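Table 4 source record.
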Amino acid sequence: MRIGYYQYEPEFGTVAKNLEAVRARLEQADADLMVLPELFASGYQFVSAEEALRLSEPVPDGPTTRMLVELAQRRRMHIVAGLPERAGSQVYNSAVVVGPSGFLGCYRKSHLFFEETLCFSPGDSGFQVWDIGQARIGVMICFDWYYPESARTLALMGAEIICHPSNLVLPNCPDSMPVRCLENRVFAITSNRIGTEARGGKEPLTFIGNSEVVSPRGVILRRAPRDGEELAIVDIDPAEARSKTLNPYNDLLRDRRPDLYHQ
């Protein structure tokens, strides 16, 4: 199975331009599964909830999801990508899952970071897993990684690959995802962006790049540079994520002790 990410720098608010840039690059991608960054076509640093609402779109009928579906069908690939989702008067930081058969579903970010709490409603979709034929994939978005329950929940639901659209500004995630993969025996694709945004007098946000594909053994199979655009594709065997056995006596998921895990 060929999986990958596209790390790039979107221009804030120019959704049509960003969509065309991403479409042109993914036309060159020979992959089964591609992950794009969080809010990949809108940009990240909204100055108000009203601006987030203005740039949000319905799912699956908005232009971003429609473009992704058309591209996925033409290129015979699955795509996971982040966008601001409008649902009535609510705006969610979401990620859509699309493939050759069309729109598969939408995940709404569970753990909002920093000023996202001023612009988005907390996600209410819960974690989900989709069977795309070659593998079962789950989705978490950016700051969700900070909560080990996110990846563990997806692993317990049967995810073999965790798709992780991100706009990372803190330095910790790239070196932490190998632990998330090791403790759950899953692959992960973290697709981050690059560049800096400083809007409306706010403090600048500099995105750290370092998108990566990590194996169930915690090995970084590919990592992007900190500040450069990169489309990367890695060959994997999803079956590596199906055994949780460490040795003849230990199985990572079977040996859990939820009766002792108190809130």
